[in-house]
Amino acid sequence: MTEIAVVETVASLRAAVAGWHAAGEKVALVPTMGALHSGHIALVKEGQKHARRTVVSIFVNPTQFAPHEDFKKYPRTFDTDRAMLEEAGTDAIFFPPVEAMYPPGYATRVLLLGPAAAGLEDRFRPTHFEGVATVCCKLFTQSRADYAVFGEKDYQQLKVVTRMADDLDLGIEIVPLATIREADGLAMSSRNRYLSIEERERAPVLHRAMQALATRIRNRDDLFRAVSEAQSEIVSAGFELDYLEARHAESLAPVTSLADGPIRLLLAARLGGTRLIDNIAV
After folding, report:
1. d(Cα 222, Cα 186) in Å, to the nearest integer?
2. Which of 26, 185, 233, 278 satisfies CB 3.0 to 4.6 Å to 51 for a cystine?
3. Which residues does the annotation place in the binding site for (R)-pantoate?
């Protein structure tokens, strides 16, 4: 197994990508914050279906964390991450320090509307998507990759980044990948490691409740009643519910019935000290 290249500067990243492009090879970027799991590796494998070369960025982006959130305690597991990426056949890791991404005097951010202002994650994390879009815009232009692969688990994020790349003519194709789940349905996430044993056993309730709700909507039950009863079920199971909503799958606008579709169910809930998000298609 060839040792993976680790680059820490934009110049080094661009030189590597330029060499691949000169050889006629396409490049896929997988943006991450590290603490990798098999869901991330699935993103790498998806990138390898589209491009001869894959680059994974590992950067815990401070601008997408609010002051009260877990930036400092976000897991940093670079050695383990590198071993996983080598095993997966990744060509390079882009591992920049904060000062390379946000040097002294940095003063530019991406202003967002559309799916970033849908009243979902943005209602609870009002500065989050601005930070995500800004760092993704930088990563896209820094890498000059042909593709960028994002999971559907962070569905609103996927729609925000796709809209931004199109609107700003960034010349990169956003490739979505269906949510990777544990055997019991829980969406894979780096934050799942924060769950206690008892909480981990309870967490799949969220996916089951959404599946049941999707079935009711497909069967043309009253949408508002079905959503309300699913919300009550989740709260009764011990979760603190931020939202469970039925939205248009592309615009994320509110819907009133199946006729307004395609519909996506989106959810965020807290279990103990861990915030879980998920979504499914109806």
Report:
1. 27
2. 26
3. 64, 157
On average, the pLDDT of the chain sits at 96
Cα(233)–Cα(169) distance, integer angstroms: 43
- Quick count: other Cβ atoms within 10 Å of Cβ 268? 23
- Provide the greatest CA pair distance for the chain: 58
> Which two tokens mark 143?
């890498």
Per residue in 238-278, pLDDT (tens digit) is: 999 999 999 999 999 999 999 998 999 999 999 999 999 99
For 55-99, the pLDDT digits (tens) are 999 999 999 988 777 788 788 999 999 999 999 999 999 999 999
**Token pair of 169, please?**
């003519």
Show binding-site residues for beta-alanine.
64
- For the chain, first and last CA: distance in Å? 42
224, 233, 253 from 120: Cα distances, Å: 17, 20, 10
> Which residues sit in the known binding site?
33-40, 64, 151-154, 157, 180, 188-191
Place of tokens 């199946």: 258
Tally of CB atoms within 10 A around 136: 27
Q: What is the pTM of this model?
A: 0.94
What domains does the chain contain, in order, with CATH numbers? 5-177 (3.40.50.620), 190-281 (3.30.1300.10)
The string of DSSP letters for 136-193 reads HHHHHHHH--SEEEEETTSHHHHHHHHHHHHHTT---EEEEEPPPB-TTSPBP-GGGG
Residues belonging to the active site: 40
Strand extents, DSSP E, the chain: 5-7, 27-32, 53-58, 92-94, 147-151, 173-177, 240-248, 263-271, 274-281
